[in-house]
Structure formats: structure tokens, C-alpha cells
Specification:
Keywords: ATP-binding, Nucleotide-binding. This protein is an alpha+beta fold. The protein is built from nine helices and 18 strands.
């Protein structure tokens, strides 16, 4: 396995011919770059954005293992790109046999997102925005765009990631909250950037607060998930009280796929982060149901419907897994621009034990751990509803059990 930045440049094939492409105004150049390819491009003329982050002209940018789009908001833009083979890590890309996909589209919802940004930015106090929607509806993209646009207005919003599957300035399996004080690094895995390191970074390093969930799906442990939401909400609100600039900038929250059946989770997010704006993407029924259920907060909570972009596509589980592997690798070793040398130690596989956390009533809702692979069945019996629990016969039986063995 090769380390990013060490010898990888020698393995890249530079013989491919470049292509010049014009992106008309308000068009999107949608691209799907597999892990076994590297897309290198330059913006020759015009203004081009990736998820709200403006790209510098005449500067080479590399993308690999991503499905995204380039947007030209003001005038026609001209780019030059070349597709080369990625030989940086054969073990990572060997399972990816997808091809490079690119096309231009005039069906963009960027105008709606821009209007949404303007509406939120005009609010007097720092807005706290919760973005929800169904699976593959573009929630993460909208959260990036709103964060990037807020940063362009000299704001420092807190980007909260409640999707444990993604690693946002942290490892996959965690929930994070990060003040966005600079533009995103679109060349990094997932398009966010690196955290504080001992070296020099091109972008301002981010300092997230991380709550480890340890699982990719919140349904694996809903109680623990809501507990971490509560703890992360306390940390975020405390930071807002301590920093006036961040307080005025607001909070933007990205979430996993939620439906009306997950109202308890949505309610937990709203109460713990003091949400005043809920953006529902591509699900009118969910927006109507939330309006009814939050009717008691109609004066404090705005529910906004946003159309789903036609560029949203379904992502295969294999692609998600490869992206998680790349995120872990980049977190420790850096990428082709930033070299990191983490401390490493070797352990025997036979001595490795993996535990998963559960919440049990037997331990008064404290953390308990089970070996990975073991199943935990939640106790559905309510002690108050058990007629035999406090019976005289049961009390006598408990008293006869010795507490000390001699």
C-alpha cells in the first residue's frame, strides 16, 4: 500500500491528451470519477464552483473517487481537463471497474439554493438550519453550498454532520461539529479538507468536536444516537455562547435519510440544537407532516421545501465503502498535497477484540459493551407493568439468594 505523496507522481500516466470544454452560464458539468482514474483540470476563463466553493483560475485540480458537478454561475466558463490512470493504491482501486462519466445539464437548482441562502442570511440572529430528506436527495451538497456561501459573506458557520456513515473532518462512524472559517478543499476525499496537523496546509485547518458513534447506520443503536445528538448539541450551543462571530453566523446541520417515521429523531435534533429553520428536500409529504407535528412551534420554526436536483443519483454500497477507506487513509497519511507521517504500531490479529456499544436498562441507561458480532436484544418489558416484580413471593425469593459466597 503506497502512502499519498510518496512516489505516487511517478506512477501517473501523463500521455493522455487534454480536452477543452465550455460550460455555458447556469449549466452544470456533472462528472463521475471512479477510484481507478484521476481527473486533472484547470479553469481557463470564467467562474466555476464545486458545491459553492469557487475554483482558482489556471490552477490544476485533481479529483478521484467522486460524483459531483462543476457549476458556472455568471458567464460561460472554459476548462481544460485530462483523465489519467490512478496507480497510487492498487489494493484500493482494484475492485472499482466503473468508467468515467461526464455530461452537461441545464437542469440546475442552484438558483433556488442561492435564494435560500439569501433568505437565511437576512435573518437577524444566527440561523440554525436543519437539512432533512430522503435517501440520495442531495442533503450533503446543500449543506456544503450553504456553508461555502456563508463563508463568502465573512461568516463562520458551524457545520454539523449527523450522518455517521460519512467522515467529515473525522473518521467514518462519528458525529462532528466544525466551524467553517475557510473554503473547503475540494481535492480531498469527500470534498471537505484536513484537520489541524503539524504541517503547513493550503487551506485553513479545521478543528472539529467529534463524538464517536462507531456504526455507519443510526438505526443500529437509536438510543445511543440520540444521546450523542444531545451531547453534541450542548457543545455547539456552548460554543455559540462563547464566540459572537460564530453565534451570528449560525449552524448548518447535515443529516442521514429521515422519514416521517423518524419524527422522534427529528424532534431530538430540533430541541437539542434549537433549530429555527428546517429544509426539506424533495419530499413534500414529509414537509406537510412536519408542519402539522411542529404546529406548536409555528412562530419559532420555519419549514422550507426545496426541490431535489436532477443530478442526484443513487450511490452503490461498494462506492461508499471505498470512499470510507479512502477517508481513513487520508485522515492518517494525508493526500497527494499534504504528507502526514502518523505513529504506527503493529498488533497481532489474534489479540484484537472489537466491541460494540449498547444501552441497557439493567445498567440504568449507562454504556455497556458487547463483543462485536454478538446480538443484543432490547428488553421490551416495562418493570412497572410486571405484576410479579413487586409481589411478596418474589421479594422473599430475592432475599433467599446469598449475596456473599464463603
Amino acid at each position: 500500500m503506497s502512502i499519498p505523496g510518496f512516489g505516487s507522481a511517478e506512477k501517473v500516466n501523463h500521455t493522455a491528451s487534454s480536452v477543452t470544454l465550455t460550460i455555458p452560464q447556469s449549466y452544470e458539468w456533472r462528472i463521475e470519477v471512479p477510484f481507478n482514474r484521476i481527473l486533472k483540470f484547470k479553469v481557463l476563463t470564467g467562474i466555476v464552483e464545486i458545491n459553492g466553493t469557487e475554483l482558482a483560475n489556471n490552477t490544476e485540480i485533481q479529483l478521484s473517487g467522486t460524483k459531483t458537478y462543476l457549476y458556472s454561475p455568471v458567464t460561460d466558463a472554459v476548462i481544460e481537463y485530462v483523465l489519467v490512470e490512478n496507480k497510487d493504491d492498487l489494493s484500493l482501486v482494484s475492485a472499482s471497474d466503473e468508467g468515467f462519466v461526464e455530461y452537461l445539464s441545464d437542469e440546475s437548482n442552484m438558483d433556488s439554493i442561492l435564494n435560500l441562502h439569501i433568505s437565511i442570511d437576512q435573518q437577524q440572529s444566527g440561523p440554525k438550519v436543519l437539512i432533512i430528506g430522503s435517501k440520495y436527495s442531495g442533503k450533503t451538497t446543500v449543506s456544503k453550498i450553504l456553508s461555502a456561501y456563508a463563508n463568502k459573506m465573512n461568516n463562520t458557520p458551524v457545520l454539523v454532520n449527523l450522518q455517521p456513515r460519512d467522515g467529515v473532518f473525522a473518521l467514518p462512524g462519528s458525529l462532528t461539529a466544525t466551524p467553517i472559517s475557510d473554503s473547503f478543499d475540494v481535492e480531498s476525499c469527500n470534498g471537505y479538507g484536513l484537520t489541524t496537523t503539524s504541517g503547513t496546509l493550503v487551506h485553513n485547518p479545521k478543528q472539529p468536536i467529534v463524538k464517536n458513534f462507531g456504526m455507519a447506520d443510526f438505526n443500529d443503536n437509536v438510543d445511543f444516537y440520540k444521546l450523542l445528538i444531545e451531547k453534541l448539541g450542548i457543545a455547539v450551543l456552548s460554543r455559540l455562547d462563547q464566540d459572537l462571530n460564530i453565534k451570528n453566523s449560525g449552524v448548518i446541520i447535515d443529516t442521514p435519510a429521515l422519514t416521517s417515521k423518524n419524527f422522534d429523531i427529528v424532534e431530538s435534533m430540533v430541541s437539542n440544537f434549537l433549530i429555527d429553520n428546517i429544509i426539506v428536500i424533495g419530499n413534500e409529504r414529509l414537509a406537510i407532516e412536519l408542519t402539522k407535528k411542529f404546529a406548536y412551534k409555528s412562530t419559532q420554526l420555519n419549514i422550507i421545501k426545496l426541490n431535489k436536483s436532477s443530478g442526484c443519483i443513487e450511490v452503490e454500497d461498494r462506492f461508499i465503502r471505498l470512499q470510507q477507506e479512502q477517508t481513513i487513509k487520508e485522515y492518517f497519511n494525508g493526500n497527494f498535497k499534504t504528507r502526514l507521517s502518523p505513529f504506527k504500531t503493529d498488533i497481532e490479529l489474534s489479540g484484537l477484540k472489537i466491541y460494540k456499544n449498547v444501552l441497557t436498562k439493567d445498567l440504568l441507561s449507562q454504556m455497556a459493551f458487547l463483543p462485536g458480532g454478538d446480538d443484543f436484544e432490547k428488553d421490551e418489558t416495562n418493570p412497572e407493568e410486571d405484576p410479579e416484580r413487586n409481589s411478596w413471593k418474589n421479594i422473599i425469593k430475592q432475599l433467599k439468594i446469598p449475596t456473599v459466597q464463603i
